[in-house]
Specification:
heterodimer, A: 485 residues, alpha+beta, D-Amino Acid Oxidase, Chain A, domain 2, Arc Repressor Mutant, subunit A, eight-stranded mixed beta sheet, five-stranded antiparallel beta sheet, 30% helix, globular, B: 430 residues, alpha/beta, FAD/NAD(P)-binding domain, 3 domains, seven-stranded mixed beta sheet, six-stranded mixed beta sheet, 9 helices, 30 strands, 23% helix, binds flavin-adenine dinucleotide, EC 1.1.5.3 (chain A), oxidoreductase (chain A), glycerol-3-phosphate dehydrogenase (quinone) activity (chain A), BFD-like_2Fe2S-bd_dom (chain A), Anaerobic glycerol-3-phosphate dehydrogenase subunit A (chain A)
């Protein structure tokens, strides 16, 4: 039977960051993800802001972890070769009451150890953001804040973990967990069995369900839903800074967020839901986003919206909006990395370190690997090459001379590489996340059929078998009666 | 890396690109067409229905047949055609960067014709709420799947939007054995051509629901149903009319947007009303030597009009390129043209051209579309102070592109003033 020292359940940013951290040690580790790809839970439905850590209450678990996690990002981005930008954050005040709140945040930030925070005035803000609403009076400025592409980070963590020996298994939903008399766990998925000594529960919105499989009922979870919008790269007067309004009690407010790839994201609303699968967009939420961003950028052109999406923040109830990261007091060896609501992306690297320490305390021997490789090569990105490099690449591999996605200039070569990558991409959305094919303004209208054909050819499947994302999301359903060709 | 040099380079090998290239070539220019697909013909290749060429060829052709006639003419000419080659950058100095499987190409051009066509508006653009499952796609993509890839997108189809592509697809999918449950249109009138409503919906008993829209997308991982509802005259959803319709496919036929990313790279200014370049009566953009025609300039419903427009752009591009060459060799300074603006007035959505060189030398054609249907109205072309053209009373529809031809004599008065001119369509009381 497949034995591992540690099994991580859940391949979001939390689980993959933990896999990456544990891959530095002489351990046998597997990560089991229920979805067809990693990073398709909350990790694909968020704003990607690496919050520097002025929000959490000083002294909370979140405060410590958020700041430490955010500080790790620049080095991780270099080692793991993922995109990162440093736009900084304005938290904008419109009134005297807001100014008091900003001072409060400044104080929190300083206590939490966030660097270079300052309160700036309208003139300083407008120097950087000339389109800013004239009602904006002052802002808390966090110049160190960065933005990443969260699923790219999860893929990078997972690929590097895999290169260092962690097994990353997708389409493996854990359906049963038993603690055996020898102290080890027995895990079932629909088609496999695994045993392990330690379990790390990083199952996002389903962490309570997974815990319950092991007989643990320490907490209950509900999702906090958020709508988001993506705006076209070609929008004029794009914001350069992440801009939040002064926050409300439960949310950080509606922000505009420059992305790694030159788009602008507007996000997010925050509504508690009961349904953990309801990753829908809601009309009032979309309107709230447009209204909200117009308070900051009154001129922002809503006609530049190319996509709406949504995510569910995994919230552990009655936990002061904090993360729940601890070994179960009742089932030894079962570690929770649960309730990773915002800022889970920012915090992931530090959550992983904390989980490592919890495993260490729980008796797992942590011996660093001598041959650990901290670096990851990313897939070739055609548009990042010089003309001469592009030419040379095509001469070697003509598939790089065939443009598939015209909006984002993605070549067939890149798509083939993603299909056969370290964590292979077998669905349309998996390819989109790795190569950006279909991410642009036509949203796949021109390239979807080409990507399906390439996938079908490379995987030896019929085009009708190709899925958008989860099982059951086939895009085509058989041949036409026989009219054309 | 290949370096090439032409008098005129045409970007896009659809009907617009081919007609422009042929005319430019006829005028004596050396010409190249760059086309990213594996054949010339553009969107016509997937329009296997008939209805093309009625005015240009005086016969009814299918899309591929119409394209074929031009493809043969291009083959017979000495135009260089680069297929499977995509232009990825266009610099203001006319330097074109393109890519194909033999490597990178850099082309220098005396003049450039933009003929890249358009793309479809997507679900994101109209922000339909709901889940994000498989089974929601644009009508043009469905057309590609059915007509060229030979695959069905689903079995039970709802179509949102009454644009021509949606109407044509309603018929096509029905003929291929799929069930088209209905076409839903937000506006109180259809957006497609009258003949398409008749031939594609009425003849197949497919219901058209006006003032109705899709308010929710239901089902995951695959579409299971849509919720539709009527809207009032302010487009607000009327709650009690909400209705859930089980279906596995939602086709979107909600508009086309000219494909101008390259144009913008080159510094060409766009007309916010068309999303295409701002052009003068020669179809010249505001970047010297860059011309535009076809769907990249404004969305056309009839390919015949595309061809006529493109011939004009191709001619102008060749004249420009050859004149520039001569001017350089004779050391002549470039001329400065004075222009006035042409703007859409009452009931008019846009005009092409949007500016006019004065004094006018040649007859000009002004194309425009009305914003709402008008039963009895007349086009009026005027300055702030005087009317100098008045058309006949007729019915107007947003789905039909209209044209007015003006002769230099009619425009003579413009010589004296540089007042902007306005195109209005005024209702005439019965
Ligand atoms: C609208 C919105 C905006 C946000 N903005 C930000 C932001 O700007 N910055 C920031 O830092 N954070 C942000 N967040 C928070 C961030 O997205 C989350 O904290 C983070 O993605 C949580 O990651 P996770 O890995 O814990 O959960 P997930 O990404 O949900 O991963 C959990 C995984 O577990 C898998 N799983 C579940 N059950 C099983 C099972 N039985 N067996 C196997 N696998 C299972 C799921 O398929 C899933 O892939 C935002 C969140 C939302 C919703
Ligand atoms: C579904 C549908 C039904 C229609 N029905 C009718 C009808 O019944 N009767 C009628 O008369 N008209 C009809 N039309 C209208 C008419 O066919 C179109 O208006 C016409 O094809 C537009 O021509 P075009 O050359 O401007 O654009 P396209 O045909 O779109 O050609 C543009 C070409 O440019 C290429 N291109 C774009 N960017 C680049 C780049 N960067 N590098 C290289 N190449 C590039 C594209 O690949 C494409 O081949 C229909 C149109 C559609 C879409």
């Amino acid at each position: 039977m497949n034995y591992y020292d540690v099994i991580i359940i859940g391949g979001g940013i939390t689980g993959t960051a933990i896999a990456h951290e544990l891959s530095k040690y002489k351990l046998t580790v597997a990560l089991l993800e229920r979805g067809s790809d990693i990073g398709i839970g909350a990790t694909k439905g968020n704003g990607g802001v690496v919050h520097p850590g002025y929000d959490p209450t000083p002294g909370s678990l979140k405060a410590k972890i958020n700041v430490c996690g955010a500080n790790r990002y620049p080095q991780l981005a270099r080692d793991l070769n993922f995109g990162i930008i440093n736009p900084g954050i304005f938290v904008i005040g419109f009134s005297d009451a807001d100014e008091a709140m900003l001072k409060h945040k400044l104080e929190f930030g300083i206590k939490n150890g966030v660097k270079d925070l300052a309160i700036i005035d309208a003139g300083q803000m407008r120097n950087r953001e000339p389109q800013l609403a004239t009602t904006a009076r002052h802002a808390l400025y966090a110049p160190t804040a960065t933005v990443v592409d969260p699923f790219e980070v999860a893929i990078a963590f997972a690929e590097n973990a895999k290169a260092n020996g962690v097994e990353i298994l997708t389409s493996q939903p854990v359906t049963a967990i038993k603690k055996r008399t020898d102290g080890n766990f027995l895990l079932n998925t629909p088609d496999q069995q695994f045993t392990c000594t330690y379990i790390v529960n990083a199952a996002g919105n389903h962490a309570d369900d997974v815990a319950r499989l092991a007989g643990i009922a320490e907490y209950q979870m509900k999702p906090r839903h958020g709508d988001l919008l993506v705006l076209d790269k070609d929008m004029v007067n794009k914001p350069k800074t992440v801009m939040f309004p002064c926050p409300g009690p439960d949310t950080k407010g509606i922000a505009c967020i420059p992305t790694v790839h030159g788009n602008t994201i507007v996000g997010s609303t925050a509504t508690m839901l009961d349904d953990k699968e309801a990753v829908n967009n809601y009309a009032p939420g979309i309107q709230a986003l447009i209204d909200g961003v117009h308070k900051i950028l009154p001129e922002l052109d809503a006609a530049k919206i190319i996509r709406t999406f949504a995510g569910l923040r995994p919230v552990v109830l009655d936990n002061n909006n904090d993360f729940y990261i601890a070994e179960s007091p009742t089932v030894k060896g079962f570690i929770h990395a649960a309730g990773i609501q915002s800022p889970g992306v920012a915090s992931a690297p530090a959550i992983a370190e904390l989980v490592r320490d919890l495993l260490d305390n729980a008796g797992l021997e942590m011996v660093p690997k001598a041959d650990y490789n901290p670096y990851r090569e990313k897939l070739t990105v055609f548009t990042e090459l010089s003309l001469a490099e592009q030419d040379a690449l095509i001469n070697e591999h003509p598939a790089y001379g065939r443009i598939v996605c015209r909006c984002e200039t993605v070549t067939e070569g890149e798509i083939i590489a993603a299909i056969h990558g370290a964590i292979p991409a077998h669905t349309l959305d998996a390819i989109k996340r790795r190569t950006r094919a279909g991410m642009g303004r036509c949203q796949g209208g021109f390239c979807q059929y080409k990507v399906i054909a390439i996938l079908a050819r490379e995987l030896g499947l019929s085009a009708d078998a190709i899925c958008l994302e989860d099982a059951g999301s086939q895009l085509l359903c058989g041949a036409v009666k026989g009219g054309a060709k | 890396m290949k370096q090439l040099d032409y008098d005129v380079v045409v970007i896009g090998g659809g009907p617009a690109g081919m007609a422009a290239a042929l005319k430019a070539n006829e005028k004596g220019a050396t010409v190249a067409i760059i086309e990213r697909n594996d054949e010339l013909g553009g969107i016509l290749n997937q329009c296997i229905h008939s209805g093309f060429g009625l005015s240009y060829f005086k016969q009814e052709l299918t899309g591929p047949e119409y394209a074929e006639l031009f493809i043969n003419r291009v083959k017979d000419s000495d135009i260089d055609v680069y297929l499977n080659t995509m232009v990825i950058d266009l610099a203001p100095d006319h330097r074109i960067t393109a890519v194909n499987q033999d490597g990178m190409l850099v082309l220098a051009a005396g003049a450039i014709v933009l003929a890249m066509g358009c793309r479809e508006r997507t679900r994101g653009a109209i922000k339909i709420p709901g889940s994000r499952p498989a089974g929601v796609l644009t009508a043009g993509l469905a057309q590609r799947y059915v007509n060229i890839e030979n695959r069905k997108p689903g079995e039970r189809i709802v179509i949102l939007g009454s644009g021509d592509i949606g109407l044509i697809m309603a018929r096509r999918l029905t003929l291929e054995g799929m069930q088209v449950l209905g076409v839903y249109e937000l506006m109180p009138y259809a957006n497609g051509l009258y003949r398409n409503i008749k031939n594609c919906l009425d003849d197949f008993d497919i219901p058209l629901h006006l003032s109705t829209t899709v308010t929710n997308i239901i089902g995951y991982p695959h579409l299971e149903a849509v919720e539709v509802a009527k809207v009032d005259e302010n487009f607000a959803v009327i709650d009690e009319t909400r209705e859930v319709i089980a279906c596995d496919t939602l086709l979107l036929s909600i508009g086309l947007i000219p494909e101008n990313e390259l144009s913008q790279n080159s510094g060409v200014s766009l007309n916010p009303r068309t999303n295409g370049p701002l052009v003068d009566e020669e179809l010249a953009t505001d970047q010297p030597g860059i011309f535009a025609c076809g769907n990249v300039l404004h969305v056309h419903d009839l390919v015949d009009n595309v061809t006529l427009e493109a011939e004009q752009a191709g001619t102008a591009a060749a004249v420009y390129a050859l004149e520039q060459k001569a001017a350089v060799s004779e050391n002549r300074p470039a001329e400065n043209k004075a222009t006035i603006t042409i703007s859409p007035g009452e009931n008019v959505g846009y005009t092409v051209p949007a500016k006019l060189t004065i004094p006018p030398q040649k007859p000009i054609r002004i194309l425009f579309r009305v914003r709402t249907p008008l039963d009895q109205a007349a086009v009026v072309i005027h300055t702030g102070t005087e009317i100098f053209y008045q058309g006949k009373v007729q019915a107007y529809k947003p789905s039909v592109m209209e044209a007015v031809a003006l002769h230099p004599e009619e425009l003579n008065r413009l010589n004296e003033s540089d007042e902007p001119i306005t195109v209005s369509v005024r209702e005439v009381k019965k």
